[in-house]
Design brief:
Elements: H1 2-15, E1 17-30, E2 33-45, E3 50-58, H2 61-74, E4 77-78, E5 91-95, E6 98-104, E7 111-112, H3 115-124, E8 129-135, H4 139-151, H5 156-163, H6 167-181
Helix pairs in contact: 3-4, 5-6
């Protein structure tokens, strides 16, 4: 029974890609000198549309990373991707002073984004996206703002289900809107 659970956990670990975004070292001054602690920010994703981020604190770096990774796996969200490579529509997100703007991009563009946002996009499996961070460069707030934006991403399928229409009606309207805008 325990072996089966270990094997399942190991298989689940293999399907996820984890990226260390930031490590912060903090010092607590005590009678004998300084006592150091570490805080880690980790982004975990399956590169198929699921992604999560976690924060972990410990006295050693590996333990902080492990805690952050476990936290990220518990807090995963699903992001709808167009053609499995980019966003369905442009979206903005914010958290505190961190504001981000995410734009869908044509094939071959690649990931044009700053460090913490790039880690999120690589983990979610996005290949083409243009992103801009406005305001803070604090990695925690940038990641949270990016997740806020990704939570507001909708797919034509979900919009059609919400409106009680066919997906083809929604997509044809989007194409007509793009043509008439030119």
């Amino acid at each position: 029974m325990a072996r089966e659970r270990e094997r399942r956990d190991r298989d689940q670990d293999n399907e996820f890609v984890d990226k260390l975004v930031h490590i912060n070292r903090v010092a607590k001054v005590v009678k004998g000198g300084r006592r150091f602690g570490f805080a880690a920010l980790v982004v975990v994703g399956d590169q198929k549309g699921r992604v999560g981020f976690g924060h972990g604190k410990a006295r050693e770096v590996p333990e902080a990373i492990r805690k952050a990774t476990e936290s990220a796996k518990r807090e995963m969200i699903r992001v709808p991707l167009r053609e499995g490579r980019t966003l369905h529509h442009d979206v903005a997100g914010r958290h505190g002073a961190g504001r981000v703007v995410l734009r869908s991009a044509p094939a071959g563009t690649g990931i044009i984004a700053g460090g913490p946002m790039r880690a999120v996009f690589e983990s979610v499996g996005m290949q083409d996206v243009v992103a801009k961070s406005i305001g803070t460069s604090n990695p925690y707030n940038m990641v949270r703002a990016t997740f806020d934006a990704l939570k507001h991403e909708t797919s034509p399928r979900s919009v059609a289900a919400r409106r009680g229409k066919k997906v083809s009606d929604i997509i044809s309207r989007r194409k007509d809107g793009e043509i008439s805008a030119d």
